[in-house]
């Protein structure tokens, strides 16, 4: 859900506008760290009711913490562990309404109650994941999932 002061229209239209802003922000820049940093800041600015947003990058057969907005986080996550590792293992988005009911959930921030993780795939290989946490249960909708998956697709064109 977006802060209405920034965007109006349907959720789909709001995500379309966000993706346009992402493309404009990253146009011509090729540095991965800079682009992931600005992407996390953009999401943090416009998504409401979240307490962490950022990226984990696939390195040395594990996810390693990348640019993010929020409290300090877990640095390394093995393949298949927690919500992020499961998204990598299954190569699919994980939208978890209550993280406390997810087997093997890794609690980096005790305030987090729901989570969405979108795998980032480049050349059919895992590049990393976009991870967003919320202090509210049931925070992320199907519309959020679709919009964030499109955001990741747009972002991957700049990485």
From TrEMBL:
Gene Ontology molecular function: L-methionine-(R)-S-oxide reductase activity
GO cellular component, one term: cytosol
One Pfam family linked to the record: GAF
Residue intervals of the GAF domain: 31-159
Family matches, as PROSITE patterns: UPF0067 (PS01320)
UniProt record similarity statement: Belongs to the free Met sulfoxide reductase family.
Stated name of the protein: Putative GAF sensor protein
Annotated organism of origin: Evansella cellulosilytica (strain ATCC 21833 / DSM 2522 / FERM P-1141 / JCM 9156 / N-4)
């Amino acid at each position: 859900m977006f802060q209405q002061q920034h965007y109006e229209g349907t959720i789909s239209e709001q995500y379309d506008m966000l993706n346009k802003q992402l493309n404009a922000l990253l146009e011509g820049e090729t540095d991965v760290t800079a682009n992931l940093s600005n992407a996390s800041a953009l999401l943090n600015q416009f998504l409401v009711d979240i307490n962490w947003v950022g990226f984990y990058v696939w390195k040395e057969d594990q996810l390693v913490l990348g640019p993010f907005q929020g409290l300090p986080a877990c640095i390394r996550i093995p393949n298949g562990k927690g919500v992020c590792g499961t998204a990598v293992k299954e190569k699919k988005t994980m939208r978890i309404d209550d993280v406390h009911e997810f087997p093997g959930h890794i609690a980096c921030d005790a305030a987090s109650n729901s989570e969405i993780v979108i795998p980032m795939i480049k050349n059919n290989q895992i590049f990393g994941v976009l991870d967003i946490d919320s202090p509210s249960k049931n925070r992320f909708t199907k519309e959020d999932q679709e919009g964030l998956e499109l955001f990741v697709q747009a972002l991957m064109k700049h990485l």
